[in-house]
Amino acid sequence: MNAKVIDGKAFAATVRARVAEHVAANAAHGQPGLAVVLVGDDPASDVYVRSKGRMTREVGMASVKHRLSAETSEADLLKLIDDLNNDDSIHGILVQLPLPGHLNEDLVINSIDPAKDVDGFHTSNVGLLGTGQKSMVPCTPLGCLLMLKDHHGSLSGLNAVVIGRSNIVGKPMAQMLLKESCTVTVAHSRTRNIAEVVKRAEIVVAAVGRPEMVTGDWIKPGATVIDVGINRINETVKGGGKTSLVGDCHYDSCAEVAGAITPVPGGVGPMTIACLLLNTLNAFCDQKGLPRPS
Ligand code: NDP
């Protein structure tokens, strides 16, 4: 293996420590508060929400969880969001997705005050990011960007290929890289000769949801590979079943060629939660008229 392993777990711990320092240093202005709204009882969401709550408290912020039944009406959910929008002790609001099918996700997300939209999914924040203005930005691509900047310093002029064009990862990632003056290509399921497209990139961000789709022969020697994918696969081990997590990149073959790579798990995943805390701190600073931490 040639690639440097970018340790997202360790880097996320330094981001959380920086957030905790800022929270303590600004205690005279109040305590940042993050409200997480969970509708229904999806077990995976429940795990995420619990670890978000624990880490929020660990950095000195207030964590408030609102758990609603899967049958909650849209009107009741919108009323809760309105109450949180008007609650001065709450600076960030996160509605855990996906929502049950009878709830209109766009409507719900766009009912969050954009200043408290720590997921960066509100249309106003999407527009601000797209026009290069200060905004709340989605946590997962922010985590990828922080790791890339930490590794490369300036990203200016680098060729970046983002694989995936979802609203939560691919598109905002492309906008953030463009803002850093990368030359950005977005690849997706209709992209022709995708291996050739990816091979031109000095930065590859894979956000596809297909286990180990990107293999080493797609990678330009020395490129930086950021693997966003989280795929659970079932393996048969000695007659029994075992579930393991793999990324969208085939780790061993990509690591042979790449200059740097994020592992799965332990890469982008931990950075996502750290960036949620950073976004909550940024939202708090904005609402209090304080400068955001650099
Ligand atoms: P989506 O399913 O919303 O988007 C997947 C994208 O991949 C689409 O744009 C799709 O293209 C594209 N795609 C699908 N198949 C191919 C293919 N064969 N070749 C090229 N492109 C393809 O996924 P998300 O963006 O929400 O998530 C992507 C991955 O990242 C998932 O594994 C998810 O679990 C993970 N994830 C990890 C997070 C973390 O914290 N680490 C956070 C969020 C997501 P098209 O638009 O044409 O259909």
UniProtKB/TrEMBL annotation:
It comes from the Bacteria. One of its GO terms (molecular function) is methenyltetrahydrofolate cyclohydrolase activity. Pathway: One-carbon metabolism; tetrahydrofolate interconversion. InterPro entries: Aminoacid_DH-like_N_sf, NAD(P)-bd_dom_sf, THF_DH/CycHdrlase, THF_DH/CycHdrlase_cat_dom, THF_DH/CycHdrlase_CS, THF_DH/CycHdrlase_NAD-bd_dom. Belongs to the tetrahydrofolate dehydrogenase/cyclohydrolase family. Homodimer. This is Bifunctional protein FolD. It comes from Tritonibacter horizontis.
